[in-house]
Amino acid sequence: MRDVNLSKNFEIIQTPFIITDLPPELQLDLGSEEQLLLTINIDPSKIKSVEWSPVAGLSCSDCLNPVAKPLVNTDYTVKVIDENGCESISLIKVKVKTPDVYVPNVFAPNGDNIHDRVFVYGPDNEVIKINVFQIFDRWGEKVFEIKIHFQIYLIMDGMGISKVRNATQGYMFIG
Length: 175
Prior knowledge:
2% of the residues lie in helices and 33% in strands. The protein is mainly β. The termini are far apart.
């Protein structure tokens, strides 16, 4: 018997690892939107799939750079798989800033100068619009409603509403 040796030279080509990156956090005002900018280290043509989760508040769940418009704070995860089956996962925390608005829930416009007016209080540097303003009596009957869009610093004086001004009972509104 003879020993057989076989030798052949070959080169192992290492494919690059897929690496994705997102900023750790993004702050949005309630109602605003911003594109999530995913950075990847490979040619986009080498990507097999993209999956964002959760889908709520995103313009798409299978694209590289969706537009985010969540209503609440949301942690978005993106999983990218390349043509070789390698995957990378990145996370971004989207924090939604809600306006600091305070509205008293009762007022009594009876002319005694105690709680006769209702105001919506908010930060001076934020524009807040009201779409529907309703006032209900203590039994749940609607006594006033306005459906025009207005800014809070223009209207909110219950004394300007004749039906409410002459009332002697307490009133509640829902805005």
